Amino acid sequence: MSRIINQYSPSQIRSNNKQEQFDSNLPVRHRRAKTWHLIFQISTVIGIVVLMALLYNIINQAFGFVAFESKVNPDSLAMDGISLENLSKEDLIRIIQDKVTASRFRTLEKEKPFLARSHEEVYSVVIQEVVKPKVADSWSLFDSLFHRKTILVESAEKYPQARLEFHSWIGWDTVTTPQSSNPLNAGVRTAILGSLWTIAITILVAFPIGVGAAIYLEEYATQSWISRIIQTNINNLAGVPSIIYGMLGLAIFVRAFNLFTSGAAFGYTDPANANGRTILSAGLTLALLILPLLIINSQEAIRAVPSSLRQASFSLGATKWQTVWYHVLPNAIPGILTGSILAISRAIGETAPLVVIGASTFITFDPDSLFSKFTSLPIQIYQWTSRPQAEFRNLAAAAIIILLILLLGLNASAILLRNRFNQRVS
Amino acid sequence: MTNQTNTIIHSYMKMRKGAAEKPFDLRKRPRPAEKLIQGFLFACGALSILTTLGIVYELGKEAMLFFRNPDVNLLEFFTGTKWQPQILEFGILPLLNATLMTSAVAMLIAIPLGFSVAIYLSEYASPKARSILKPTLEVLAGLPTVVYGYFALTFMTPMLRSIFGQNIVQIYNTASAGLVMGILILPLISSMSEDALSAVPSSLREAAYSLGATKLETALKIVFPAALSGIAAAVIVGISRAVGETMIVAIAAGAGPNFTFNPFRSAETMTGHIVRISGGDLSYASIDYNSIFAIGLMLFLITLGLNIVSQRIVRRFREVYE
């Protein structure tokens, strides 16, 4: 590049020889500019392509052919030529009575009397207790669509007993059924409820404190050393890795405040003995984690309110708080809400701190209080991804889709909220 | 109109009369409620300081317990090449090495791509293209990291294995984790750098064009150096993010500390180790519990140092244009 600059120097341009060189150099420079333009463009395209690859990979894993191997062939259970799903409830109950041990039948009867169950419920019991389908192998969506024949051949060779079926790992069942060790009827119900409980606490704690701190820093703080320290400190906290917050939560909320976070101080005794590793601890930890982000976002929103508004309010004799409450906040609230929702969506996707404070890896019951054990959607995804079996990877993909839909909904609501408030304010 | 004026004058006279009886007090009235609110708001701000103190105190306390342990030798901690708590070998180098390797691979991807994207968006792209491309890339930054971990394990690793061979690339390896981490950090670097590039006044670009410089020469020789402080800060924030990144390495880089410079072999990073150890039910009295706090303290100091440096760079070297 230094050559080019040299050519501009007057002494050289004066000479005719150099002028020629400049002219012959020009196409080279233009070509170089074009090449790099292309390189920059390709880099941007790579970024977009990677995003597409990520989404493709998830969808690819969430649907596809599955080879089911069942303990009892459902066709053998058909009676008088009527297929299993069309049998009457009484016949289905008779099948269960025949095939299941007497004690198991009594346990099922105790859970809910068979006569009180609907046809669908009895049918699902037949599937789970008698047919007992198992995943022998699963294929990706891409292979299922384009290499159908190879799959059919491979499946017939390797698993002659198996039934090949196109299976969607994500469905309404996935959302409504709790965790299970059998990938075919495992769902994310407990995980979703755990996430919602945790996030509710995070919002309740972080939102007022975050907005309060932002108001203090923008409206009240003078150029004193203490407010400067607070500001620098918040900027630094925003860069601390999330896992460090997990360790802080483990040391403070789980261990030091065990009496409160386990509910013992409120006379609550948890039958499952969560020992401080509760929804409350998780929510508080996530609240600490998103506070710096929330404060910085809210500060920006408050700073954007024109100071003429404040001066007008002061000139009418309003006190500082009246000015903030009646004039600054209503104008800043769309920005604050958008910023907060961004911070909250970060909390929803956060995994590492929850693993550190001790999220439960396997719970099948719904969380029912602040002091229950918890799991969350990202934790569930992490658990399923870490398992070696391919079918759990498929389940993890389904859980990721649910998580992304949740985040998408949240972000969409942020935009809607902002638009509504914008109209009202203006 | 006159009627109204009369009323105003009338009320003014009344006020004057009142003032004559009792002088109008212009001193600030004490407002306890206002003070209370201000106190509450201050407490909200001060909570952040408590958080920092809490982090430093808790990490420091547990790390002290760890270093006081007779089985732990401070010199060995920093120079030992084995981290095996079962046989009381505590050398942080394998963990630190894996962290540096994944971060290096990540930056190898994120820096060139991030710069290119930033230059393209700020110098080349039309406003309309930018308004679509920038939010799309920011979606990448907003995805939960566990999703990236999943991507690394189910997409990147099989791809690497099919390119380089099943025997060379292990199922869990630092290269795959690092590559995906680079993708995670790419939008962070490109977005921060783009902000810095866009902040350079257009008069500088126009001056370069008027001297006959091509678009590329303007971008690389004029705009880029002018925005260097912001770009350097972006890179340092990116490094700090890579060092602290947890879920990708916990899922894809492997479990078990391993002192290796081969990116295709499995190795456990500092963050990955903390997650694995704390994943099980950990007794508070064990040396394992103390040891993860010692690692955490190191992690905290590294990232804090990087963040402070990046803030310094921005403040010290920022070029202010009129």
Structure in words:
The complex is a heterodimer of chains A (426) and B (322). By secondary structure, chain A is mainly α. Chain A contains 19 helices and 3 strands. Chain A has 3 domains: 2-60, no CATH class; 65-169, no CATH class; 189-425, MetI-like (MetI-like fold, Orthogonal Bundle). Chain A has a 3-stranded antiparallel beta sheet, sandwiched between helices. The two termini of chain A are 53 Å apart. Chain B has 322 residues and is mostly helical. Chain B has helices spanning 2-21, 32-68, 74-79, 93-124, 127-142, 145-164, 174-198, 202-210, 215-226, 228-244, 247-252, 270-279, 287-317, and strands spanning 83-84, 89-90. In chain B, a hairpin with a 4-residue loop joins strand 1 and strand 2. Classes of the chains: A mainly alpha (426), B mainly alpha (322).
Helix and strand string of chain A, N-terminal first? HHHEHHHEHHEHHHHHHHHHHH
Please give the share of residues in helix of chain B.
over 70%
Please write the CATH class name of chain B: Mainly Alpha
**How big is the Rg of chain A?**
31 Å
Alpha-carbon distance between the two ends of chain A: 53 Å
CATH top level label of the largest domain in chain A: Mainly Alpha
Separate helix tally of chain A: 19
Order of adjacent strands in the largest pleated sheet of chain A: 2-1-3
Number of strands of chain B: 2
Structural class category of chain B: mainly alpha
Strand order of the largest sheet of chain B: 1-2
Biggest beta-sheet profile of chain B: 2 strands, antiparallel
Q: Which strand-content bin applies to the residues of chain B?
A: under 5%
